[in-house]
Amino acid sequence: DGKPVSLSPLESQPHSPRYTASSQRERESLEVRVREVEEENRVLRKQLSLAQARGPAHRRGNHSKTYSMEEGTGDSESLRAGIVAGNSSECGQQPVVEKCETIHVAIVCAGYNASRDVVTLVKSVLFHRRNPLHFHLIADAIAKQILATLFQTWMVPAVRIDFYDADELKSEVSWIPNKHYSGIYGLMKLVLTKTLPSNLERVIVLDTDITFATDIAELWAVFHKFKGQQVLGLVENQSDWYLGNLWKNHRPWPALGRGYNTGVILLLLDKLRKMKWEQMWRLTAERELMSMLSTSLADQDIFNAVIKQNPFLVYQLPCFWNVQLSDHTRSEQCYRDVSDLKVIHWNSPKKLRVKNKHVEFFRNLYLTFLEYDGNLLRRELFGCPSEADVNSENLQKQLSELDEDDLCYEFRRERFTVHRTHLYFLHYEYEPAADNTDVTLVAQLSMDRLQMLEAICKHWEGPISLALYLSDAEAQQFLRYAQGSEVLMSRHNVGYHIVYKEGQFYPVNLLRNVAMKHISTPYMFLSDIDFLPMYGLYEYLRKSVIQLDLANTKKALIVPAFETLRYRLSFPKSKAELLSMLDMGTLFTFRYHVWTKGHAPTNFAKWRTATTPYRVEWEADFEPYVVVRKDCPEYDRRFVGFGWNKVAHIMELDAQEYEFTVLPNAYMIHMPHAPSFDITKFRSNKQYRICLKTLKEEFQQDMSRHYGFAALKYLTAENNS
């Protein structure tokens, strides 16, 4: 009919006026047609936009024109009517945000906890969004490392991330004393005009403790309503703080009436720069600090002091754009219905424990995003071209080269799967040892092995690097478990790296590589989560590193492995006690009953009487637990689940001419547990075993190609074994 075809998510919702019983069928047919008429739509949209543009006030965007979807009345019925009108094809409609216009968002983020909060905020924005997003993250070194890895592995289409060094900005605001718990980072929103790119004209600024309940484009659309010298979009503060009546002698910073809350800010950067915003806020801060001495609410105090002097700068946003859930606020006046909610702000130090009669509803909304599967947010924006991403293109190329009819296709695909990764999920502190001998214990685990963490921490006092394979919901369970454990909370030298679940296999070697890559010591002990190291192993290994000159030689120091079949074990406190338990049948050499070859080359008979380290030769299927330098090769990702994941790594160490040396006074003990899901699949699924055999053969062929004649022994050894 010559009209643009609209497939906006709004029209697929049951509460939309256009929704009918047959809309699903119609939608499917429209999706087929849209490819043919997309070009026509683009032209028509452009013509419609030109017709609506009534002067320069509509040209304030960074890339294209921006329009409003709501009138800011706070009336939910008017709002819904405005949205429906915004989707009509009449020229006199209430204008809307351009379909593929980029929305810019700035967030200040520092430290481990704030990095977790940012993820929840971003999830809520991504869940509702229909536009490309550009996040500008003012981050310290910790947050940058965490969030750069997270977004790189998240691979969300039409999302761009830029980082700005928060530590470089400290000198801009460090002269301002601040009593607020946000510290120096709570003042950095003041310098955004200087920090963000000079060609960026406007930006939405958000605190990390924000949850979106609507499409952020609706907020972006409010920019077009700024008039005259309005350059700041803010919601009125919903507490009585700035009224100065909270307690006797309470003396807040000057503010206009109740003042404004800076958890959500719309900044017209280009106009602020022309107004000399930097000079404006600095002069105001200097003047007020002469009497106030420090800020109590960080940047918010200074913003309000500037506004008190220059009220014309503010466009007051309706309060549903920042429903402030601190104690004793008027937040309940911001909404009459669930559909009125736009943005929830947990702006109390109590966070989820705040008092509000609807707090259960808000808490559940927050927890929904907290535990929401972030992989589901990787969806493409229909009709909006994404910027070329080299990693994504390489991944698609690698996957396209795989044969989908291959019976081992799923195994091969897992090697190229990019798993979303959140490094340092909990606070981490490590002070490097002065003697440069420090050793990190490296291991990986899933939810069913969490109970081993406390025991390992009691046995190993040194740094630990753990990769945990969890879903988003399990990550939150782990967080609660860790925060409830005195043992785990007392240890700050444990790095917990979450690798989020995806696919049907347990990516054991990817997890090991993640844990290995993020150690801070020169040496690492490659262990497994089901083993408890002997008491004192950490210090013993540090001495062995010096004794055996690991810094200047290619050695892999073997820690002999034993096992118990008893869930309750009196752990041996010495080698003599361990030998006694071996003789009594309480302990066994590891996998003696089912897989002798895995540890036979350790030569346990010699170990019984050894008092000095001794060298052993590689043999087929050898898979000891070793201490190596941090520059040792990674594990091969083609091996997933059960089988050959450690064997292949030890083979590669041998190919690189590592010398295997058994430590005479070291040991570790495997604790019993139920069989893993992957070993059950290996035992019960013939195709699994066939594919593992195929992958082994391919690995050996790759070894021969890479290491030449020296690697032929692996093929021979495999054939003879």
TrEMBL record:
Q: Which intervals of the chain are annotated as region Disordered? A: 1-29, 50-76
What is its membrane topology?
A: Single-pass type II membrane protein
Q: Which pathway features in its UniProt record?
A: Protein modification; protein glycosylation
CDD domains xrefs: GT8_LARGE_C
Q: Which reaction does it catalyse?
A: 3-O-{beta-D-GlcA-(1->[3)-alpha-D-Xyl-(1->3)-beta-D-GlcA-(1->](n)-4)-beta-D-Xyl-(1->4)-Rib-ol-P-Rib-ol-P-3-beta-D-GalNAc-(1->3)-beta-D-GlcNAc-(1->4)-O-6-P-alpha-D-Man}-L-Thr-[protein] + UDP-alpha-D-xylose = 3-O-{(1->[3)-alpha-D-Xyl-(1->3)-beta-D-GlcA-(1->](n+1)-4)-beta-D-Xyl-(1->4)-Rib-ol-P-Rib-ol-P-3-beta-D-GalNAc-(1->3)-beta-D-GlcNAc-(1->4)-O-6-P-alpha-D-Man}-L-Thr-[protein] + UDP + H(+); 3-O-{(1->[3)-alpha-D-Xyl-(1->3)-beta-D-GlcA-(1->](n)-4)-beta-D-Xyl-(1->4)-Rib-ol-P-Rib-ol-P-3-beta-D-GalNAc-(1->3)-beta-D-GlcNAc-(1->4)-O-6-P-alpha-D-Man}-L-Thr-[protein] + UDP-alpha-D-glucuronate = 3-O-{beta-D-GlcA-(1->[3)-alpha-D-Xyl-(1->3)-beta-D-GlcA-(1->](n)-4)-beta-D-Xyl-(1->4)-Rib-ol-P-Rib-ol-P-3-beta-D-GalNAc-(1->3)-beta-D-GlcNAc-(1->4)-O-6-P-alpha-D-Man}-L-Thr-[protein] + UDP + H(+); 3-O-[beta-D-GlcA-(1->3)-beta-D-Xyl-(1->4)-Rib-ol-P-Rib-ol-P-3-beta-D-GalNAc-(1->3)-beta-D-GlcNAc-(1->4)-(O-6-P-alpha-D-Man)]-Thr-[protein] + UDP-alpha-D-xylose = 3-O-[alpha-D-Xyl-(1->3)-beta-D-GlcA-(1->4)-beta-D-Xyl-(1->4)-Rib-ol-P-Rib-ol-P-3-beta-D-GalNAc-(1->3)-beta-D-GlcNAc-(1->4)-(O-6-P-alpha-D-Man)]-Thr-[protein] + UDP + H(+)
Skewed-composition ranges (Polar residues) = 9-23
Q: Which Pfam families match?
A: Glyco_transf_49, Glyco_transf_8
Look up the record and report any one GO term of the cellular component aspect. Golgi membrane
Family, per entry: In the N-terminal section; belongs to the glycosyltransferase 8 family. In the C-terminal section; belongs to the glycosyltransferase 49 family.
The family database entries (PANTHER family) matched by this protein are listed as: GLYCOSYLTRANSFERASE-RELATED, XYLOSYL- AND GLUCURONYLTRANSFERASE LARGE1
From the Swiss-Prot or TrEMBL record, give the protein name: LARG1 glucuronyltransferase
Q: What is the lineage of its organism?
A: Eukaryota, Metazoa, Chordata, Craniata, Vertebrata
Q: Which gene encodes it?
A: Large1
